[in-house]
Structures are given as structure tokens and as C-alpha cells.
Design goal:
heterodimer; B: alpha/beta; Alpha-Beta Plaits; 2 domains; six-stranded mixed sheet; about 25% strand; elongated
């Protein structure tokens, strides 16, 4: 058994070392760090601690990438075998769960740790910019490595527990959002005074859990390390807790492996004809939209779950506001209205990115591209129908955002930067979803983290052009006494972005799709 | 207005000087052949011969470097939409949405071909009856056996009532029973007036099934024409199989002494009672038979040996793996 485990593990490491893509990603990441550093040098003259600022950036980028990798790259470690029905073959061949997990998941973890390691020499250059010490850099990387270990093993647990990649990704996303939201929820619940059921025991429990959450939180740890002026403890409680919880999840996955190793059961819409008539029904006039919505995006039942989720989210904010300020005549304060709007927008962004990474990739994985191309529907019409399916899946998010915005639009419109924020968000979402779709036709599972990695520097590079164009439009509009100059600026930016950035990507997606159909 | 084409006079498939290469590797070299309407045409060749590339060029998925492909008179380059409407392509690998039921799968493709709900109901009923999958319409595709999945694939190809079916290795991976049943369905489709272009490695079944055949090797057509012409090719010297109930001593020598018999050989894998007689050019087989009977050798049967498709295939294609 040890020989089989070692063979599989070393094979996966060798495969990673031989494949060109991981090296390109690492080189790309190093390049990105150099770009951010150059920006740091650029700003060095007008900043007190450019090194610290630069390193802050790098840490935040790493946290984001680890989260994205958790819900897309690590989470498919075992489910990809379940999806293709090869897990049973591996088990029949006598490969133990430990060997499978080491080769499939730990191999990916080591590959991701290499991505952190490769940054180290470059980030040490931040010391020359000033404001950061080598102990802070090492402390941050220790914290990030431990966090990566936790995320990878939590994703492995989801991958072992769930029967398909889609479900595992949903569970991992829910866990990630739950962990991020638990901090403010626990802290604010402990602070409520006017609720009968929040007894001192509940307050203490909330405080204790909040403390645990903060002790494991990478955000808190990074902020602590970067604000410490003296010696930094490299292996703080956050490090050990993340390692221990990660190790525990790995063990749990190993124990549960056989119990949940059944292949994906695609009867998500019910087995009986009567139930399926309700959950699936007849094909729509847009057949690709029907297929994608029902079979790639969870269908009507998942749509209902999302509606309930958003209802709970908004109700939670309303309840919190009523409990915190019972004398208020508003259902929701301005701050909470804005917070709930931005949280819903964030969740919608994650949904869009996940759908983008799955939509075309599923066709490639099921080898159905050639069959679809034989239909009397042009490739661009087919891709538009796929976009329409994503739109149907996003209906609960859209409705939530519209309801929250229309509740008191003045809260949002009072913010002078709201138009720019919408434009920036739209730009980033369009760019990253296009990139994700394109990359999903090239790579097996890492399309989403790669797309985020590429989108960020691209966004930085073209962002300044966007701002300049926005200012130019505003000036021109002011000269001609045209109101709503901000929104005209947003429109202008979207037009040039589509022509020069998105359209070439769309053409490449069509080309790649057509090329894949010939295989 | 497009001109109306009579499908009985125009070849179902006309491939002319088709040439294609991938990264310097010549996959097809001046491939030309024709398939007549309402026939079952076999397309055989060793691995890497260019069968799938040719199929993909016919079904509009691949734009060849050179040459012309026409389907019922419509060029695949100039009129790919019309060609797609007229053909049904079943690829060599299973490409199915396994999470759908059989009915949902067929409903999806029927809707994609623009059929309305009432038409879809009728068409799905028809194709399910034809493929004998009526009782499995509400089963998940993932729960079906390979043979049944292949039938669903065939049903999918038929939903838009194409005139030409292009089937790439339809019987690969099927057990003998599923294979025989599939061949029965293909025969039925031919009776219904469909043209079937079938690429397969299972030569014995193709020989029974096909009206015409094209043999391709290393990107070049080695033979294309009616099955009879292939089996009779190079068969100017007739061979007869003699099966004896018992073999007296020196039978071979006595047979070789008969006027009109050039050579007597024992076939490979013989049970010892079978002999192959090669007749001399112009010899009459009946005269030879009378002479054999005259020798008093007890005869069980006497029949002309036709060349088998696999023999023709081996003669026409080159040994070894293509590099």
C-alpha cells in the first residue's frame, strides 16, 4: 500500500513539474508581483511606507486567489474522478483512499504552495521600498501557507463528501462565505441588547466563537503581522489552528472516503416521471438555455433555494436593524442597506464566475461539442443561449439587487463614486467571466483562479484608461451642460471595452469552440 | 430560390480530391469516392487511415485544405447549414447528457432542430419505437447499458429525419447481441430509404450489410465501389472448396491429376476434410466436379470460394502502424 501511495504521489508531483501550465502560472504571478512593485516604486515618492503598501497588496491578492482556488481548483480533486466514473476503477485497482487523496489533493496543495514560495524572493524586494521587515514578510507567508493548507483540506472534504463537482463547489462556496460572514454576525449578535433570547450565555458563546473565528482568520492575522513593529512570531496560534483543522479535515476525508465514493448520481431533478415533469418539463424555445439552466446550473429547485437564501439575507439585515434600533422608523438603515446591496452583488459575482467556469467546460468534458455544432444553430447563437441560461440562473440575485436599490435609491445615488463603482465592477466582471470561459476551454479545472490572476493586472492596466475616459466624458458633458455625465462615461467605457477587450476574446472563444468540435 | 435536387440521381455523398493535413502530417491525400442514395456504404481502413477525418469533413465539422465534398449536391463549404439539415452524425465516442432521461435528451435535440411540441411528441414516439426504446423513455441515460445508450444516440440522430446517416464506429464496444440488434435497425433504416455511411472495424458484419464499400489506407482510397466488385476483384482464377466425408489416401495427388485443376491446397484452420481447388483458366467447374465424383471420393459439399472482406481488406491495406 505504501508503495502504491508513494508511486501515485510522486507521479502527481512529476506530472505537475513536467506540465508547462503550472510554470507559466508561477512565472505570470512573479511578473504580476514585479508590476505591482513597479507601481510601488512609482508611488514611493508620495507614500510614507510604499513597501508595506506593496506587500499588503500581495497578501490580499494571495488571500483572494486561495479562496478562488478553494472553490474551483482544490474542490474538484476527487469529484473529477466521480464525474468521469473513474473513481470506482481506481478503487478496484486497489488504490487506497489515502493514495488517491495524496495524489489528487496534496499534489495540488504542493503546487499551490510552490506559487507562494516563488513569490518570496520578489517580495523581499519590498524591504528596499521601506515600511516592511523580513520578519513581517516571513510571518505573513507562514500564515498564508497555513491558510492554504486549511482551504485545500476543507475543499478536499467537500470533494469527498459531495457526489459531483458542481455540488462540491456549491458547498465550498457556502463554507467560504459562511466563514467570512460568521465574524461580523457573531460580533454584532453579541452586541445586541434588546433581544429577549440573547441571554448572557448566548453572548458569551458568540464571543467565544468570534474569538475562535478571529484566531483562524487570515485577514486578522495578516493585519496583525503587518501592524506589528517588533519581532513577529512566525508560528502564531493562527498557524497551528489552521494546520490542525486542515489535518483534521484530511483525516475526516480519509475516514469518510469509502462511504461517499459512489459516482455522481445525476437524478437531481427526481427519478419519477411525475416529479421530472415539474422540475424539468418540456424543452424551451431556446433549447441550449433550457439544457444549461436545468442541467448545469441546478435548475428550478436550486433557483428556489437561492431565492430563499437571498430572502434570509435581507430578512437577517432587517431583523438585525430592528433589534439594534427598535425605535427606528426605517426597516433598514442606510448603512445596512448599502451593506446588504454590496454583499448581494458580491455573491452574484461569485455565482457568475462559477457559472462561467462550468458552462463551456461541461460540454468539453462530456465531449458534446461536436454534437452541438451539428445543430442548425450558429456557434455565436449557441453561446448567447448559454449566456441567457446564466441570466436565468441569476434571476434571484438580480431581483434582490433591484429591490435593494429601489428601496431607497437616494442612498446609493448620493455617493458621487457610485457610477464609477458600477463601471469598475461591470468591467471586472465582464473581463473575468470572459477570461474564465476562454480558459475553461484550455485548462481542466484551474480556469477560475487563472482568470482572476490575469484579470487583476489587466484591470489595473486598463483601469487608468477608464478613469481618464470617464473624466474626459464628464468634462465634455459639463461643457455642453449635459446631465448624468457619469452614466454617459460608463456607457462610453463599456463600448470601448467591448470593442477592444471583450470582442477579441469572444472571437477567440468561438474559434476555440469550433476547433474543439473537430477533435 | 434554391434549385430542387432529385436525391435519386445525385450522389448522397460525393468526395472529390479531398486533401487535409494536420501539422505537417498528411491525413488525407486526394481522397475521392461517391455514395449513392438509399444505399448502405461501408467505410473501412486501419487505425489512423483517415476515416474520422473524412467523416468530419463530410459532416461540416472540418474544413479540408483542398478538395470538394458534396452532400446531395450541396457543398459542405458553401452550404453547411443545408448539409447539416440533411445529415445525422453519430460520433465514435459517447457524447451524451447523462443526467437527462431518454425523453428529455430527444426532446432537447428535437427542439434544437426547430420542431414544435406536437411534432416533437410524434417524432420521439417514432424514433423510440424504431430503436425499440419505447419502454425506457423515462430512464436516466446514465442508468442505461452501453448498447442502449448507442440506441439512444441513433434515435437522436434520427429526430430531424435526415436523408443521410453518418455513423462512426457505431458497433464498437457493444456485445454481440447489441451489435446484431443495431445492424437490424440499420437494415430497417435502409429499407426506409435512408442512406447510411458507416465507418466500422467489424468487417464481417459490414460485408453482410453493405451495398458498397470504400477502403482507405494512409489517407488514400484503395478501393471504392460495390461490395460485389471488391469481392470479385483479382478473382479471375476461381477457387472451389471441397468438403469430403472421409479422405482416402493420396486424395490430393489424384485431384491434382484431374484436367482443369491447377492446384489443391489445404485451407488454414482446416479439419482435415476440406480442400481448396484452384481451377485452371477457362476450366468448367461442373466438368471438374464430375471428374471428382468419378474418382469415387465421398463428397459432402462443393462450393465456390468468394474472397472475404477481411481478405480484401488485408490485401489492400498496408501492414503495420502508420507513423
Amino acid at each position: 500500500m505504501i508503495t502504491a501511495t508513494r508511486t501515485l504521489f510522486s507521479w502527481s508531483l512529476r506530472a505537475d513539474a513536467k506540465s508547462v501550465y503550472p510554470h507559466i502560472v508561477r512565472a505570470g504571478f512573479s511578473g504580476l508581483i514585479l508590476v505591482i512593485m513597479l507601481l510601488g516604486f512609482w508611488d514611493a515618492a508620495r507614500m510614507s511606507a510604499p513597501g508595506l503598501e506593496f506587500f499588503h497588496w500581495i497578501c490580499h491578492l494571495n488571500i483572494l486567489l486561495i479562496a478562488v482556488a478553494g472553490i474551483s481548483y482544490f474542490v474538484t480533486a476527487v469529484t473529477e474522478e466521480k464525474d468521469s466514473g473513474t473513481l470506482a476503477l481506481l478503487r478496484l485497482a486497489g488504490v487506497s483512499p489515502l493514495a488517491i487523496m495524496l495524489s489528487k489533493s496534496t499534489g495540488r496543495l504542493i503546487s499551490a504552495l510552490m506559487l507562494l514560495l516563488i513569490q518570496l524572493p520578489f517580495t523581499f524586494l519590498a524591504i528596499t521600498l521601506g515600511g516592511v521587515t523580513w520578519q513581517q514578510i516571513l510571518g505573513s507567508y507562514f500564515a498564508l501557507a497555513a491558510w492554504l493548507c486549511l482551504v485545500a483540506n476543507a475543499a478536499l472534504f467537500c470533494s469527498v463528501r459531495c457526489s459531483s463537482s458542481g455540488r462540491a463547489a456549491s458547498l465550498a462556496t457556502a463554507l467560504t462565505l459562511g466563514f467570512a460572514a460568521s465574524g461580523p454576525i457573531l460580533a454584532n449578535t453579541a452586541g445586541l441588547r434588546n433581544v429577549a433570547w440573547i441571554t448572557p450565555e448566548v453572548v458569551n458563546a458568540c464571543k467565544y466563537l468570534h474569538g475562535l473565528q478571529q484566531d483562524m482568520s487570515i485577514w486578522v492575522r495578516i493585519e496583525t503581522v503587518l501592524s506589528t513593529t517588533g519581532n513577529v512570531t512566525l508560528t502564531a496560534p493562527q498557524f497551528w489552528r489552521c494546520i490542525m483543522v486542515g489535518g483534521g479535515l484530511f483525516l475526516l476525508s480519509n475516514i469518510l472516503f469509502n462511504r461517499y465514493s459512489a459516482p455522481a448520481n445525476p437524478s437531481g431533478h427526481g427519478r419519477t416521471a411525475g416529479i421530472r415533469r415539474l422540475t424539468v418539463g418540456r424543452c424551451w424555445r431556446l433549447p441550449i438555455t433550457w439544457k444549461d439552466f436545468l442541467f448545469f446550473m441546478g435548475g428550478r429547485s436550486f433557483l428556489l433555494v437561492k431565492c430563499c437564501g437571498y430572502l434570509v439575507l435581507v430578512s437577517g439585515f432587517v431583523w438585525f436593524h430592528r433589534a439594534n434600533a427598535p425605535e427606528s422608523r426605517l426597516w433598514l438603515s442606510d448603512d445596512l442597506l448599502e451593506n446588504s446591496f454590496y454583499i448581494a452583488a458580491g455573491i452574484m459575482t461569485i455565482e457568475m464566475l462559477l457559472y462561467a467556469s462550468h458552462s463551456l467546460f461541461q460540454e468539453a468534458r462530456q465531449s458534446t461539442i461536436a454534437t452541438l455544432r451539428m445543430l442548425p444553430i450558429s456557434t455565436s447563437a449557441m453561446l448567447l443561449q448559454k449566456v441567457a441560461a446564466v441570466m436565468v440562473g441569476l434571476i434571484p440575485s438580480f431581483i434582490t439587487l433591484i429591490v435593494l436599490f429601489c428601496w431607497r435609491p437616494q442612498v446609493f445615488l448620493a455617493n458621487d463614486d457610485f457610477a464609477e463603482m458600477v463601471a469598475a465592477w461591470g468591467f471586472f466582471v465582464f473581463l473575468s467571466t470572459h477570461l474564465t470561459v476562454l480558459l475553461s476551454l484550455y485548462t481542466r479545472w484551474a480556469a477560475l483562479p487563472l482568470a482572476i490572476l490575469i484579470s487583476l493586472p489587466t484591470f489595473l492596466c486598463v483601469g487608468s484608461a477608464c478613469v481618464a475616459l470617464m473624466n474626459l466624458t464628464k468634462t465634455a458633458a459639463a461643457t455642453h451642460n449635459i446631465s448624468n455625465a457619469q452614466w454617459i462615461g460608463v456607457g462610453v467605457n463599456f463600448v470601448w471595452m467591448w470593442v477592444f477587450v471583450l470582442l477579441p476574446m469572444e472571437l477567440e472563444i468561438i474559434n476555440r469552440w469550433n476547433r474543439l468540435s473537430r477533435r | 430560390m434554391p434549385s430542387k435536387i432529385d436525391i435519386n440521381t445525385v450522389p448522397a455523398v460525393a468526395v472529390s480530391e479531398l486533401t487535409h493535413s494536420f501539422k505537417g502530417h498528411q491525413a488525407l491525400n486526394q481522397v475521392s469516392f461517391a455514395v449513392m442514395p438509399q444505399t448502405l456504404h461501408g467505410f473501412v481502413g486501419p487505425n489512423g487511415a483517415g476515416k474520422t477525418t473524412t467523416l468530419k469533413a463530410i459532416c461540416t465539422l472540418l474544413k479540408p485544405n483542398w478538395g470538394e465534398v458534396q452532400v446531395f449536391g450541396h457543398s459542405v463549404r458553401a452550404d453547411p447549414k443545408e448539409v447539416r439539415r440533411r445529415i445525422g452524425f453519430m460520433p465514435d465516442h459517447f457524447s451524451m447528457y447523462r443526467q437527462m432521461t431518454v425523453f428529455e435528451y430527444l426532446d432537447f435535440f428535437a427542439a434544437a432542430y426547430g420542431l414544435d411540441i406536437s411534432q416533437r411528441n410524434q417524432v420521439i414516439d417514432d424514433v423510440l419505437t424504431l430503436t425499440d426504446m419505447d419502454g425506457r423513455r423515462n430512464d436516466l441515460i446514465s442508468g442505461l447499458s452501453r448498447g442502449m445508450q448507442q440506441r439512444v444516440s441513433l434515435a437522436r440522430v434520427l429526430v430531424h429525419d435526415p436523408d443521410l446517416l453518418l455513423l462512426d464506429e457505431p458497433a464498437s464496444g457493444l456485445d454481440p447481441r447489441a451489435r446484431i440488434e443495431l445492424m437490424e435497425i440499420l437494415r430497417e433504416l435502409r429499407r426506409m430509404g435512408k442512406t447510411i455511411f458507416i465507418s466500422s472495424h467489424i468487417l464481417s458484419e459490414l460485408a453482410e450489410l453493405c451495398d458498397s464499400v470504400t477502403i482507405i489506407d494512409r489517407g488514400q482510397v484503395r478501393f471504392s465501389g460495390p461490395m460485389e466488385a471488391l469481392l470479385d476483384a483479382d478473382d479471375e482464377v476461381p477457387r472451389y472448396r471441397l468438403v469430403l466425408s472421409q479422405v482416402p489416401e493420396d486424395t490430393v495427388g489424384r485431384l491434382e491429376a484431374i484436367d482443369g485443376i491447377e492446384e489443391v491446397t489445404e485451407p488454414e484452420y482446416s479439419n482435415g476434410r476440406e480442400l481448396d481447388l484452384t481451377l485452371a483458366a477457362g476450366a468448367d467447374s461442373n466438368t471438374v466436379l464430375a471428374a471428382v465424383i468419378g474418382l469415387g471420393i465421398p463428397i459432402e459439399s462443393y462450393s465456390q470460394q468468394r474472397k472475404q472482406l477481411n481478405q480484401a481488406f488485408m490485401d489492400l491495406t498496408t501492414r503495420g502502424v502508420r507513423t
